[in-house]
Design goal:
CATH class of one domain in chain A: Mainly Alpha
Radius of gyration of chain A: 24 Å
CATH topology of one domain in chain A: Butyryl-Coa Dehydrogenase, subunit A, domain 1
Number of strands of chain A: 11
Oligomer: homodimer
Largest sheet of chain A: 7 strands, mixed
CATH architecture of one domain in chain A: Orthogonal Bundle
Number of helices of chain A: 18
Strand content of chain A: 5-15%
C-alpha cells in the first residue's frame, strides 16, 4: 500500500492562513516560534511516517490479544510507544508544572492529525490519556494532580474514560455502576463498563481510569452521577479492576476496546458529588474535537492512497484524446469521474484541516485564565462549531474513505491495498463520542436554538464581514457572493425551524442531522474562501515563490464551490420536509 | 443478531402492483399461477430463513480455507447447497429442455432477493452459475449446451465468469490471457484471472469456467477477444486450471474469490472468434440486475436488524412527552431522527423492490422469441434502467447498511450484532460487475445520449401518462405533480448535458455519477407513486381487508417524497457545475 507522507506544505499553508504565529504570541506561547513549530512538525512527521505508519496494517491483522485479563497489543506497538514517550511527545502541550513542555494545545491538535493518519488505532492509546488529564486538571485536588497528572503527562501511565454501560451510552442518566463510600474517604466501585478504549494494554506501567458512578444516596437520572479516579495499580498493588474481555470490532483492531469490571475497586471522588456529568461537559468540546480529527486523518490518508493509485493505474483513453500514446491506456487520473472523487477527498481534507486547526486555536484561547471578549468568542464558537466538526468531518471522512476504495475498483475491496482498512477504521468515528444524531441535536437544540440563534448570528456576521473585506480582490467575488447568500439562508432556515419547534418539539429532532450537514458545508465554504483569499493575496506579490501551490488552492476552492457546496440544496429541501412524515406512522406499523 | 424473516407480505404487494399474474399469462408462463407463485415463495422463505440465515455469521467468521489449491467453504455451506439442489431450486427458472422447471426468470429474481438477504456470500455460488448458463444458452453449440447446461441447470455443477486480470478489469481490451488453437479443434488457455467468485470450492463436483482470452492472430484491444468454456474436470479428469490463492477481502468471506491460473487448460470456443465482448454484452443486463439485487437484499436485511433494535433499546424521553412511563427511558423508535433512518431504509427497500422486480419482468419479455412492441419496450427500458438499478440500488443499499449500524450506536461496530457485517458485505456491490462510475457512464453516454435521449423520453412519457391517469384520485396529486415536474426536469437536464458534451466529451464523464443518482431518485419516485396509487385504489373498496398495510404504503411514499426525493436538488446543482473545475488542474498538481 501507499506509504503515508505528512502533508507538511499543506499544513503550513493552513497555519499561515490562520495567522498562527500571531496567535501563539497573543496567547503568550512565546516558545512556539515559527522555527520551533516547524522543527516540531518535522520531527513529528518523521516519527509518524517511519515508526507509526509501518505498524498500520500489522495492527489490523494481529489485533490485540486477550489472555485471562492480560491484553497484548500488536507487534511493534509497545516499542513505538516507548519511543514516543522517550521523545517527549505526550508532554508536548501539557502544563509545565506537571512536567509538560507548555506548547499550545493547538499544536498538539496538529500533531494529532499526523498520528491519526499514520495509525489511528495506535494514536488512540495516548489520545485517551488526554480525557483523563483534562478531567484531573480541571476538577482534581492538588494531591490528585500531583499523584496522577505527572505520570500521565510524561506518558509513563495512560488514562481512560469509563462512561458507557451495556444498557446505556447516550443516556448516561441510566447508569448503574455504584460507588459506596468507605471509612477512609475512598469509594468502592462496583459495576461493568463497556467500550473502554485502551482500557487494558501492555504499553504503560499503570492505567488511570476516570469512572462515572452513582452513590447510594444519589438521586436517579443524570443528576446523581459522580466522577471517580480509579487507578489500575494503587501504590504498586493491583486494584480490583480488570478487563473481562475485548470487543470484536469492525476495525481499529490495534486498539484494545475493553469490557472493564470494577469489583469493589478503590476509587476517589473528583469534583463535587453528583456533579459528574457537569464536570464532564466542561471538556466535552476537547474530546469531541479529538474525535473530529479522525475524520480529517481519514480524508488525508484515503486521498494519498487513491491519488497514488490513480497516477499508476491505466484504463481506457481520456475522453478528449489520448494522453499516453506510448502506453496501451491512459492513467485513470485523466478521467473526469476519477478526478471528481480525488478532488472531493482533497477539498474535504484541506477544508476540514482549516476548521479543525482553528478549533484548536479556540481551545487555546478558551483555556486562558483571564476573561476577555476573545475568550468569550472562542468559547461560543467552540460550542457552535465542535458538534459540526465532530459529525460533519467524520461523515465526510467516511465518504472520503469510501471514495478511496472506489478509485481502486475491485482492488479496493482487497485487504493488501489498505484502502478497506481505512473504511473499517473510520466507520467508528460517526458513532463514538456521541453519534452524528446526538451531535446534531446538540448543535441545533443546545448550541443554536437555546440561545435563539445569537451565537450563529455572530458567526455568520463574521462570515459577512470577511466577505466584504475579501471582495476587494475581484476574483473572490464568486465565492463571497455565494457565501453571503448562504449565510443568510442559514439564518433564515434556522429561524424557520425555531418557529416550527415552538409548536412541536419533534421538529428539532426531525431536522437536526440535515441541518448539521448543511452547516458543515457552509462552514467549509467559509474556510475555503479564507484559504483562496490568502492564496490570491500571496499571488499579488510579484516575487511570489511557489505560485503553483497557491493556484492549486484557488482551483480546489473552485471545485468545492461548484461541485460540493450545491449539496446543501438537497439537505435544505429535505430538512424543510419537517417531522410529519416521520412521526405519523405508529411504531407498530414499521 | 436479529433473525431474518422473508418480507412475504411486502413482496406480494409489489407483485400485485406490477400485475404479476397477468404478466405470467402474457408471457405464456401458465404454470406460474398465483397459488404456485405463493407456494414457491413460501418454500423459498422457509429455506432462506431456516437454512441460509443461520449460516450468515459463521460464513463471515470462518471464511473459505485454502490449502494447496483446494478450497473449503465454511461449515454448513455444503450441506445447505446439497439441500438447495435436492429441492430443485437451481432449475426453477431454467428452460425445460435442459431439465429446468420453466418458471419465469422474474420469479427467480424474487427468490434471489430472499437468498441474498439471508446469506449473500452463499447465494453467490449459485448466482454465478447463471452467467455461465446464460452464455452457453445464447452462444453455445447444441453439443456444448448438452454437455454443460444440463448439469449446471440441476446444480450438480456450478459456473464462473473469468474476465478480470491483475492489470485490467473495466478495460478488458487490455487482457493478456492467450488461447492457442490445438489440432483437435480445442484451445490451450494460458493466463491468470483474478477476482473469480466461486472459482474453486467444495460444493459441486465440477466447475464450468467461461473465460475470455485472445487468440495469437487476433487484433489488439477489445476487438480481439473470444469466449471459451473451460471445465475444471474434463471427462472426469483434471484440466490444467487451478486456484492459486484466495483473495483477502473486506467481506463476503463465505464466498471464495479466487486467483485462477490457466496453465495450458483445454478450452472450447463459444460464439464467433473475436466477438467475445459482444457475446458478453448480450447478457450484461441480466448479470447487472443480479448484482443490483444485492442492494435490495442489503436494504431489507439492514432495515429488519435496526428496526428490531429500535423497538428494544431505550434511551432518553420522546421529545413530545414520555411514551413508556413505567420504564426509565423511551424506545429509541420514538425519536424522530431514528425514524428518519428507519424510514430511509424502508422506503429504499420497498421502492427498489418494485424497480428490481419490474426489471425481472422486462427480462422475461426481452427473452421472448417473437418480436413485438412489448419486447422492444422491454429491451429499451432494460437497457436504460439496468445501470440505474445496479449503481443506484447498491449505493443506496450501502447507505442503508450504514444507517443500520448507526441506529445501533456503538453496538453497531461490534461483530456479534451482525450489522457491521452487512456494511462489509454490501461494500463490494458498488464495485464489482462495473463500478458506479462505469454504470453511470453507460447510462448517460450509451443508454441516453447515444440515442439522443429517445429511450429516456419514452420512459418519461410513460411516467407522465401514469400521472394523468392516477390523478383521478385526488390524494395522488402531491405525488403526480411532483413527478411530472421531475420528468420534465430530467429531460431538460439531459438536453443540457448533451449540448455541452458536443463541445467537450469530458462533460459526460464529469456529470455521469450525479446524473445516475438523480435518475435513481426519479425512478424510485415513479415506483412509489405507482405503489401509492395501488394502495389508494385498494382502500377505495369498502370491504378492503388489511387497510393498515395500504395506509402504511401511502405514508412511506409521503416520507419518500418529502424527505428523500429532494436530494435530487443537490445532485442536479452539483452536476450542472460541469467539468471545468475537474479538468483544469494538471495531474501533477494533485
Amino acid at each position: 500500500m501507499h506509504q503515508y507522507k505528512a502533508p507538511i506544505e499543506d499544513i503550513h499553508f493552513v497555519l499561515d492562513s490562520l495567522d498562527y504565529s500571531k496567535h501563539c504570541q497573543t496567547i503568550g506561547a512565546t516558545e512556539a516560534s515559527d522555527d520551533m513549530v516547524e522543527a516540531i512538525l518535522e520531527e513529528a512527521a518523521k516519527f509518524c511516517e517511519q515508526v507509526l505508519a509501518p505498524l498500520y496494517q500489522v495492527g489490523d491483522q494481529e489485533g490485540c490479544q486477550f489472555d485471562n485479563g492480560v491484553v497484548t497489543t500488536p507487534t511493534g506497538f509497545k516499542a513505538a510507544y516507548e519511543q514516543w514517550v522517550e521523545n517527549g511527545w505526550p508532554s508536548l502541550a501539557q502544563k509545565e508544572e506537571f512536567g509538560g513542555q507548555g506548547m499550545p494545545e493547538s499544536l498538539g491538535n496538529v500533531i494529532n492529525e499526523l498520528g491519526g493518519s499514520a495509525n489511528w488505532a495506535w494514536a488512540m492509546y495516548s489520545g485517551l490519556s488526554h480525557g483523563a488529564m483534562n478531567t484531573l486538571e480541571m476538577h482534581g485536588t492538588d494531591e490528585q494532580k500531583e499523584e496522577y497528572l505527572t505520570p500521565l503527562v510524561s506518558g509513563q501511565w495512560t488514562g481512560t474514560m469509563c462512561l458507557t454501560e451495556p444498557h446505556c451510552g447516550t443516556d448516561l442518566g441510566l447508569l448503574k455502576t455504584k460507588a459506596t463510600p468507605q471509612d477512609d474517604g475512598s469509594y468502592s466501585i462496583e459495576g461493568t463498563k463497556i467500550f473502554i478504549s485502551a482500557g487494558e494494554h501492555d504499553l504503560a506501567e499503570n492505567i488511570v481510569h476516570i469512572v462515572i458512578a452513582r452513590m447510594p444516596d444519589s438521586p436517579e437520572g443524570s443528576k446523581g452521577i459522580s466522577l471517580f479516579v480509579v487507578p489500575k495499580l494503587l501504590n504498586g498493588e493491583a486494584n480490583h479492576v480488570s478487563c473481562g474481555s475485548l470487543e470484536h470490532k469492525m476495525g481499529i483492531h490495534g486498539n484494545a476496546t475493553c469490557v472493564m469490571n470494577f469489583d469493589g475497586a478503590k476509587g476517589f471522588l473528583i469534583g463535587p458529588k453528583n456533579k459528574g456529568l457537569n464536570c464532564m461537559f466542561t471538556f466535552m468540546n476537547f474530546a469531541r474535537l479529538a474525535t473530529a480529527v479522525q475524520g480529517l486523518s481519514t480524508m488525508e490518508l484515503a486521498y494519498q492512497g487513491s491519488l497514488a493509485y490513480a497516477k499508476d493505474r491505466r484504463a481506457m483513453r481520456a475522453m478528449t484524446g489520448t494522453k499516453s500514446p506510448d502506453q496501451p491506456a491512459d492513467l485513470i487520473i485523466e478521467h473526469a469521474d476519477v478526478r471528481r472523487m480525488l478532488l472531493t477527498q482533497k477539498a474535504f481534507a484541506e477544508g476540514s484541516r482549516m476548521l479543525i486547526y482553528q478549533l484548536g486555536m479556540f481551545v487555546d484561547i478558551a483555556k486562558q485564565e483571564q476573561d476577555s471578549p476573545e475568550k468569550t468568542r472562542a468559547d461560543e464558537f467552540l460550542g457552535l462549531l465542535t458538534p459540526i466538526a465532530k459529525a460533519f468531518v467524520t461523515e465526510a471522512g467516511f465518504e472520503c474513505a469510501n471514495l478511496g476504495m472506489q478509485v481502486f475498483g475491485g482492488h479496493g475491496y482487497i485487504k493488501e491495498w489498505g484502502m478497506e482498512q481505512i473504511v473499517r477504521d473510520s466507520r467508528i468515528s460517526t458513532l463514538y463520542e456521541g453519534t452524528t444524531g446526538i451531535q446534531s441535536l446538540d448543535l441545533l437544540g443546545r448550541k443554536v436554538l437555546s440561545n435563539r440563534g445569537q451565537v450563529l448570528k455572530k458567526y455568520t456576521k463574521e462570515m459577512q464581514s470577511f466577505c466584504k473585506q475579501a471582495k476587494s480582490i475581484k476574483e473572490m467575488k464568486p465565492f463571497t457572493n455565494r457565501l453571503i447568500k448562504m449565510s443568510k439562508e442559514w439564518g433564515w432556515m434556522t429561524l424557520k425551524i425555531g418557529l416550527k419547534a415552538r409548536k412541536n418539539r419533534d421538529e428539532v429532532n426531525a431536522a437536526c442531522v440535515e441541518y448539521l450537514m448543511y452547516s458543515g458545508y457552509a462552514v467549509l465554504a467559509y474556510m475555503w474562501a479564507q484559504m483562496a483569499y490568502k492564496a490570491m493575496q500571496a499571488l499579488e506579490d510579484p516575487n511570489c515563490e511557489n505560485k503553483q501551490q497557491y493556484i492549486n488552492k484557488i482551483q480546489t476552492c473552485e471545485f468545492y464551490y461548484e461541485r460540493l457546496l450545491p449539496r446543501t440544496r438537497g439537505f435544505k429541501d429535505c430538512l424543510l420536509g419537517g417531522s410529519k412524515t416521520l412521526m405519523q406512522m405508529s411504531a407498530d406499523d414499521f
